Amino acid sequence: MNKPMSMSTRTMARRCLATAVFGAAALVAPVTLLAAGSGPTPEQYVNAANNNSDWILPAKSYTGNRYVTSEQITPKNVRHLKRIWKFKIHDDAGMETAPIVWHGMAYVTTAHDHVYALDVKTGKLKWEFMDKPHVLAFAANRGIGLMDGNVYVATLDGHLIALDANTGKKVWDVVAAHDTSNTFYSMAPVPYHNAKTGKDMLLLGASNGDWGGIGYITAFDPKNGDRIWEWKTIPGPGEPGHDTWSGDSWKRGGAAVWSGVAIDPQTDTLYMDLGNPQPDFLATERKGSNLYSNSMVALDISGDKPTLKWYYQFIPHDTHDWDPAMPPVLFQGKVNGEDRALVAAGDKGGNFWILDAKTGALVHHTVVSFQHGQNTEPSREGNIACPNTNGGIEFNGGSYDPATNTFIVPSVNQCGRWKSFEKAVYISGQFYLGGGFPELVGPSTGQLNAIDVSTGVFAWRHNYNLPSIAGVLITKSGLAFTGELNGNFDAFEAKNGKLLWHYRTGSPIVAPPSAVEVDGNEMVIIASGKPSIGMAGVKELPKKDEGEMISAFALAK
Amino acid sequence: MGGAPAAHVQPARVSGPAALGAGLLLACALFASGAKAAAAEPHSETLAALADTRAAIAEIVQAEDSIVNSPAPYRRAAKRAINAIVGEGDRMLEKASGNPGDAAGAMGHVNTILDRRDSPPWVNTLHGVQVNLGAAVARLRDALEARELDDYQIDVTAALLNLQAVVGQPTQTGVFGGLTGALATTTLGVPAGAHQVSACAPVAEAPAYGVKDGYLAFVTVPSAAGTAGLPEDLGSRNITLQGDRLIVRTAAAPLVAELCRKQSAATPQAQADPPKSDPPPKGDPPARHPAVPPQQQSSGQTPALYTAAQAKEGKKVYRQHCLKCHGEKLQGSLGPALAGTGFLQAAQRNDWTLYIIRYLAVNTMPLHSPGALSPEQYANVLAFLLAANCYPAGDKPFPQQEDAQLKRIHLHPLTGVKVRYPKLGTCDALN
Predict the structure, then answer these.
(1) Nearest residue on chain B to A24, judged by CA atoms?
(2) Residue numbers of A between 524 and 553 with CB closer than 8 Å to B
């Protein structure tokens, strides 16, 4: 059945993109525009790290480091933390988001692109937006972007939608992904103001790196969803690095931008970790190092179009989908007594990396997960490698603690048996792997690792009997908050890894914690729900969970 | 709306091939396009959309051919092309530049045709047309902002590509056919009031349009001496003389022959008397209208691909191995939906055959232990998937081994089936 088609030309052209064979590029003009309302200013975005009453970017600030200078909750009093509200969510998947908090409103997304606006003080619902997108492969959404009085959500069917931040009413809705048959969105749109060109933009990477696409990140105009620029992650013919792909393999090479990005506003540098090459498990037809898959890239975004400053490839010619899932974290750390601008990364192959943020030179490489058979390609008969595809360091990554000069990051120990196919067949709208996802072998466990930035050696480790993939929040008072797949929300002492407090939320935690001060009270917030799909096969998981929810904690009075 | 479609018709000259004799020419005055002013007559609307699109192309090409240094003529051409596409009700119209098209614009005509509830085979084609029109407008608007002629040319070249896709080719069905393809191969090519016959039946009268399930397979005319133009270019190289009739077959003819063959194969009589396997047989196979069992009637031409017993067993397999990611009602949870309107639409969009679905299930599922089920379990769970998608059960079990026959089964939303869970569009679930 077709919907009646008597909309305006523009809306219609956008709506129908999904059925297109000839994918249309930048489509036409704004639909309707509400007057630019309230929203953080460019200065407030640049200074987000120092504002404790709001949480306006996915990882608090452009650095990607989940760190707050609040000192109310301390190692001494953390045992008095109580849940002050809980908001139950009706979706049916993992919660991978930290709420964006602005002027008392907390905006939360769920895996199937529902958006909830809550009163951050009470957890009471102000408005909700229910999208019902087609799910390509798995459901995940990692949050919203906030600009011009709008809430921006990027969806599982490739739309970018603007909602009125006060009412939740749709302002505009565009098909933003080029090919919705193999591309969707899971990351949060990141608002950015280019001071040199004076342009506001939403930075959004496309998830298409396991379904036969080529990765790209797009800067969208927040007024109407028009494209300002786009940067493709695989060099085309004639570009440097193109010869790292044999034949035509680059055309479905992957290297998606899917988890999150970091920005240095001083230099207008965008840091991204690009995903795995495709077909994931069958590499015979893509000989070469396959740039810029499994690489961190630093882009100069000060001009009209981005230019590549440097790249560092973590795993050349990956054959196990061990992409650097962790979003980059920028920090000033001490190495051999010297203060340096650094950037951290982590991959699903179980490696933690520290690079020089200016040059991309390697500073430290620390193996955090059990590794085995890493240089063996999957065979037709099947062979074992570790970590499993969804092991190592996952999409939340970790955070840096300036007080102890350590980086605290969770990791997964898990092995898999891979089987490659004889051929990789591209099927529109399906995985493009050249094999099956690996069968789990042996137990699945995890760790919380504190890595000394000075040496790249562990300062301490905490062992879990389940994989550990939630994010880490560090407070200036010396606490590290994180969550577990068994539903526990934990507070560790950052300097020694001592578990000081935990709370049973009842549902697996795969989200990052966040903290805001409301009326002078420091509040820690965590989402819990189903495990992410990568963990769904873990047999050690608790059999029951209490569903999706957001919980907020504060000190008992 | 509006315009005078007849004026836009560009008749294709059809002259008889040598084999038919030199003096043989087509007479087909009867086919002169209906050209009725009646509202929303799809045939004339399509012609009008095509005319507007060609007018837009002509504007651009004309400007390209000129030799001037001023940007004004280029900009004017882009504006006039936009006007021909968007029509006069649209905000983007720039009246001052003039409109080489009609009041409705190509977009307006296409919108009018698509404003409907059923889904004939040309709907996807016209969606493609819509998108390409939209894209062309976007390119042309970009071109208007170009400062250098080079930039202008890059944008209008892209716009021209989109517009050429809108015009399409009469030798192509589907999206690639564009408007001319839709006119040549679907019922959009049939003027209002023209005589239509089943394309599965032998050709018995002329003039007539041979149609089947929304496709136009042939046009036949009396082979009297004379010369005339067909209303549209049918893109055909296959013109046969049969008795005193000329039959011009369209690019959709092989596809329709297949549809007719499937239809007759689905009936008991046809099984007793199978059609010749070498398509297309000379003179289309006779249409059969046997009594169809009520169960098959309810699901139209959807074949029965599994047994009810398999689906029942498959439900158990699903509960144990699939439920966690795909949901109790197959509606999707951590993973994608496996049943219902959304799933079947995706299947149609991506052209998933049952062969592909089986291949994916057997080779990649369950996600964390692919290949772990027995052939019987895979067959059963696929039977359950079909049951949940309202495909009918029958006597023949779903195959446990790879089966090339499944390549012919394209999954799509079914019409005329009773849906048990209307909200999801599914027929079976765990609870």
Answers:
(1) B135
(2) 530-533, 536-537
**A–B: how many Cβ contacts below 8 A?**
172
The answer to whether B325 contacts A533, with C-beta atoms less than 8 Å apart, is yes
The per-residue DSSP string of B379-408 comes to: HHHHHHHHHHTTPPP-SSPPPSS--GGGGG
Calculate how close chain B gets to A7, using CA atoms only, in Å. Answer: 8
Q: What are the φ/ψ torsions at residue A148 (nearest 5 degrees)? A: 55, 30
Strand, coil or helix: what is B272? helix
Distance in angstroms between the alpha carbons of the first and the last residue of chain B:
51
CA angle A501, A507, A510 (to 5 degrees): 80
Compute the distance between CA of residue B342 and CA of residue B3 in angstroms, rounded to an integer.
Answer: 38
DSSP state of A420: B
pLDDT above 90 (res B222): no
Cross-strand bridge partners of residue A175: A159
Give me the pLDDT at residue A387, please.
97
B224-276 pLDDT tens trace? 756 656 666 777 767 888 777 888 888 888 888 888 888 777 654 433 333 33
Burial per residue of B226-262, b for 16 or more beta-carbon CB atoms within 10 angstroms, e otherwise: eebbbbbbbbbeebbeeeebbbbbbbbbebbbebbbe
Helix, coil or strand: residue A556? coil
The angle that helices B42-65 and B105-114 make with each other, rounded to 10 degrees, is 160
A440: chain B residues, CB-CB within 8 Å: 368-369
pLDDT at position B40: 62
pLDDT, tens digit, for every residue of A462-488?
Answer: 999 999 999 999 999 999 999 999 999
Cβ contact, residue pair B332, A419, below 8 Å: no
Which tens digits make up the pLDDT trace of A513-522?
A: 999 999 999 9
Checking B414-421 for CB contacts under 8 A at 24+ apart, the result is B414/B299, B414/B300, B414/B302, B414/B344, B414/B389, B414/B390, B415/B300, B416/B298, B416/B299, B416/B300, B417/B298, B417/B299, B417/B300, B417/B302, B417/B390, B417/B392, B418/B298, B418/B390, B419/B390, B420/B390, B421/B329, B421/B340
Residue whose C-alpha is closest to residue A415's, from A382, A448, A451, A453: A382
B308-408 folds as: Cytochrome Bc1 Complex; Chain D, domain 2 (1.10.760)
Domain limits of chain B? 5-9+34-187, 308-408
* The pLDDT of residue B262: 81
* Lowest model confidence (mean pLDDT) among A250-254, A312-316, B21-25: B21-25
CA distance B152 to B278: 52
Parallel, antiparallel or unpaired: strands A548-555 and A81-89: antiparallel
pTM for the model: 0.69
In this predicted structure, the answer to whether residue B330 has a pLDDT above a threshold of 90 is: yes
Mean pLDDT value of segment A383-401: 97
> Does the ipTM exceed 0.85?
no
Query: Do A112 and A132 contact (CB within 8 A), yes or no?
Result: yes
C-alpha to C-alpha distance for B139 and B121, rounded to whole angstroms: 29
Asked whether the beta carbons of residue A537 and residue B369 sit closer than 8 angstroms, the reply is yes
Per-residue pLDDT of B124-146, as tens digits, reads 899 999 999 999 999 999 999 88
- Cβ-defined contact of B364 to A5 (cutoff 8 Å): no
B43: left (phi over 0), alpha (psi -120 to 50) or beta: alpha
Q: Looking at beta carbons, which residues of chain A come within 8 Å of B342?
A: 134
Is the CB of A135 less than 8 angstroms away from the CB of B337? yes
Q: Which of A19, A440, A530 sits opposite B349 (nearest CB)?
A: A19
DSSP run (H or E) holding B186:
none
How do residues A85-116 score in pLDDT, each as one tens digit? 999 998 888 999 999 999 999 999 999 999 99
Cα separation, B357 vs B391, in Å, equals 14
For residue A132, give how far its alpha carbon lies from the nearest alpha carbon of chain B (Å).
10
